[in-house]
Design goal:
Number of helices: 18
Distance between the termini: 45 Å
Number of strands: 14
Low-confidence stretches: 1-45
Helix content: 40-55%
Radius of gyration: 25 Å
Mean pLDDT: 86
Shape: globular
Strand order of the largest sheet: 9-12-11-10-13-14
Strand content: 5-15%
């Protein structure tokens, strides 16, 4: 593969040396050559699946793909585009997998890809993607705002469903949502826009989402909510309903494909924990006492105790990687020892070692630049009363410890600090909207990520103020980046994210006369 890419590069260099043409035309010729070479020499590539990228020149594209036939958010590869913005990425896909491609300005393309696919992604910036290839329609549907909005509204409806409503009414809501999305997939398949295999893949993915949302809602609303009195008869019916929902994923579990899906690990935790709950107390106690590693798990994952080992090592490996991403390292050695014991040679271990070392390195850095605000702050204007902020312009990062995108942006902290240092009198301030019970976790994360600047966990009055001032009372969405003037007035309500550092610089330059 590397040899063939060298051939491509040399071929392109020879064209550049012999021809003088416009940049856009050269990009087109460049792409045609790559496509021609690829499709005219099918045995050239040892890998069975390929993405051709066309975007900004000399930039890095991050790839997150499967590890050991298991979906993971972990960054697995990085590639760099050439002088015309092109790059080829090829790898072996077993049947299908979900892939995340992260670009230079912080935007991501997340989608499923089939074995043997040859996909071209043209990224123009600001989330503007164009796809070409046999699965174009299926991928465009998957990343569409309409599909995401349907799922988002269903999730909101599920947890905001009136408490006085019966579980039968809620069951109808589930069936309606599933029917809408399922019918859409059927119509796309009928139009030959997507293949039956891709339709099946997306329906299974939909099943995972429905299961994770609905069973969580069933339990929180009707089985674990002390304010709602559910009769024994209804409780039994709800249990039957949960089992019916879980039966939908039994074939996927039997096929060993469960962990290839984005919510596969969550659905498996629900599936096996539901079975675990049906054990008698004596058997539960025996399992807990015989498996000390389970003490590091939350109770909603005690189902791991009855998971087959060929699945368990993957679930525990995912647990470790997700913990490291959340800067949690306590008790990890127990998991590592157990995973190494039941599967000494597995593809996760190098990534676990790498991410653990990165976290330890970060946690051992000098954190003297991490400072906390002791003043009572009930409104953003109150910040100008803090002594350290006198006559300062404040760059505010509004975040929360449970917010994945917020945490993801912290990897750009060094670029952000370097940028802010170019402006006189600008100080970074991190305001968390976490509740009181997350105070310890909040402080741990600020130190683990070494977020140099001043930190504040917003009280109820400040949260209400921010909601009304920035969001019109519609609810706070994070992350959000704000610029405050020296008197506490808002200069910018919604700055670009640090991951889009070039755009952020352009916006900040407007306020500093650059």
């Amino acid at each position: 593969m590397n040899h063939m890419l060298t051939i491509f590069r040399n071929k392109l260099k020879s064209i550049y040396s012999k021809t003088s043409i416009g940049y856009n035309r050269q990009r087109l010729i460049n792409l045609i050559i790559i496509l021609g070479l690829f499709f005219s020499i099918p045995n050239t590539f040892s890998q069975n699946t390929t993405i051709i990228f066309n975007t900004k020149a000399n930039t890095t594209i991050g790839i997150s793909k499967e590890i050991d036939n298991t979906y993971t958010r972990t960054l697995t590869d990085e590639i760099i585009t050439d002088a015309t913005g092109n790059s080829i990425y090829s790898w072996d896909v077993n049947d299908f997998q979900f892939v995340n491609c992260s670009f230079h300005d912080g935007w991501n393309a997340f989608f499923p890809i089939m074995q043997g696919s040859h996909l071209t992604i043209t990224y123009k910036g600001e989330g503007q993607f164009e796809f070409a290839g046999a699965d174009k329609a299926a991928i465009e549907y998957y990343i569409s705002d309409s599909r995401k909005e349907l799922n988002r509204s269903f999730m909101n409806l599920s947890f905001d469903f009136p408490a006085e409503s019966s579980y039968e009414d809620y069951s109808l809501l589930i069936e309606k949502h599933y029917s809408i999305l399922s019918n859409k997939l059927d119509s796309l398949m009928a139009e030959n826009a997507i293949s039956p295999k891709f339709s099946e893949l997306l329906k299974n993915d939909l099943n995972m989402f429905t299961i994770c949302v609905t069973i969580g809602a069933y339990r929180s609303k009707y089985l674990e909510n002390t304010a709602i009195k559910v009769s024994n008869e209804d409780s039994i019916k709800i249990g039957v309903k949960i089992n019916e929902i879980l039966d939908k994923i039994s074939p996927i579990i039997d096929s060993k494909e469960m962990l290839k899906y984005t919510l596969g690990s969550t659905a498996l935790a629900i599936f096996y924990t539901n079975k675990y709950r049906q054990l008698n107390e004596k058997d539960k106690e025996k399992l807990l006492s015989e498996n000390s590693w389970s003490n590091q798990l939350s109770s909603n994952k005690h189902g791991y105790l009855i998971v087959p080992q060929e699945i368990l090592y993957k679930l525990l490996s995912l647990e470790l990687l997700e913990n490291y991403e959340d800067t949690v390292i306590r008790g990890d050695s127990i998991f590592i020892d157990y995973v190494s014991k039941i599967r000494p040679q597995n593809a996760f271990l190098p990534y676990i070692t790498e991410k653990r070392n990165e976290l330890l390195l970060s946690m051992n850095e000098d954190i003297s630049g991490v400072k906390y605000i002791d003043n009572t702050i009930n409104a953003l204007e109150d910040l100008c009363k803090v002594e350290a902020f006198d006559q300062k312009i404040l760059y505010i990062d509004l975040w929360a410890t449970w917010c994945g995108p917020c945490i993801g942006e912290f990897k750009n902290r060094n670029k952000l600090n370097e940028l802010l240092s170019n402006y006189a009198d600008v100080i970074p301030v991190y305001i968390s909207i976490d509740e009181d019970n997350n105070d310890t976790v909040w402080k741990e994360k600020t130190k683990a990520f070494n977020l140099r600047g001043h930190h504040l966990r917003a009280n109820e009055k400040l949260v209400t103020y921010i909601n009304e001032k920035l969001y019109g009372g519609g609810g706070i969405g994070v992350p959000r980046y704000i610029l405050l003037d020296k008197d506490g007035s808002i200069l910018e309500k919604d700055l670009p994210r640090p991951s889009n550092i070039d755009k952020l610089k352009r916006e900040l330059d407007k306020h500093f006369g650059y």
